[in-house]
Design a protein that fits this description.
By secondary structure, the chain is mostly helical. The protein has one domain. About 75% of the residues lie in helices and about 0% in strands.
Length: about 150
Amino acid sequence: MAWDAIFGAANMLALVMWAGLILLPRWPALLAAVLYLGIGLLCLAYAALLVGIVSGGIEPVGGQSPSLDFTSIEGVRAIFASDGGLTVGWIHYLAFDLFVGLWIARDGDAKQFSRLVQAPILLATFLAGPLGLLLWLAIREKRAKAQGRWR
């Protein structure tokens, strides 16, 4: 399996979707593309590759097929010790971070936050997922409290 190519393709797909989400007008077609072409394809790749590795149908290269031990740091290290395990794990991050970014963009638009406020938060989500989400949650709740619409 060409893990480098899969890794690169997943990164490029995510990067294109993030660029569209941050830089382009939020047309319904763009949001649908991010959801279905971006997130959907990343999730499909993740599921297919994970099943392939776990079933033994795909060789992870650079290590043995991981036993999927998430209960210890050694177990998680073993999962990511192969090119396949690392690629599948990275696709997992890409899909979830992009999903969170899409939610932030839609929520920001619905709450009438300017794109100038949203852009650095989306960039933080792209670069450091949970940090961007934490920033967004703090900013959106602060405004909601100030407007008396805290939910």
